[in-house]
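Proteins fold reproducibly. Look at a sample protein:
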Amino acid sequence: MSRTRTALALGMAAAAALTVASITASAAPSPLAGSTTVTPAGHAFKAALTGKATLKAGSVTVTCSVSVSTGSVPAAPGNQNPAGAVASPISPPTYSSCTSSMPGVTPTVTTSGSWSVSMQNGSPITATMTVPTGGLVVHTTGLATCTVTAAPGGPASVPGSWANGAPSSLTFTNASVPVTVTGGFGCPTSATSSTFNAVYLVSDTTDPAQQITVTP
């Protein structure tokens, strides 16, 4: 066989091997999520903001110092998932004592709809808050009249982390949230996403002596 044919044959063989390897890799199943248990089963909880929560869209930042949401750990056996996260419905978080980075502008935050938070055990423990369609709206008055609507095209997942403790905490760090912005001069109408930062302390309101905990 000539050198040319030999090189061609080797090249075709290598290409075939790469193709098979690619197909095999793409067909490989994704690793299953680990087990998650949230306790105490059936207990009610309250998530209260510590520090400040910020929502930044474009060059405008809204800062709130009070935010609260409530919910319940699912009753057994719903508080356990052998291969994934455990979700809990929560009340729409309230936001008050809010200010804007724009001078002469006063923001008001309203929330609505069916919110939830899910926990996935791991290292670290992850948490995902689901904002329903249009479930959070920031309206500003004063020198600039703007409306910022979160999750405008459908429910949005906001990634965060969970830390067991006394009390446990739920943290969102530069989490991206899709938004639309409408309004006139001074409004960041070109913004399509915002960044959300907040830390919530989560306490057991059924039995304050216990802690809401996420384990395998």
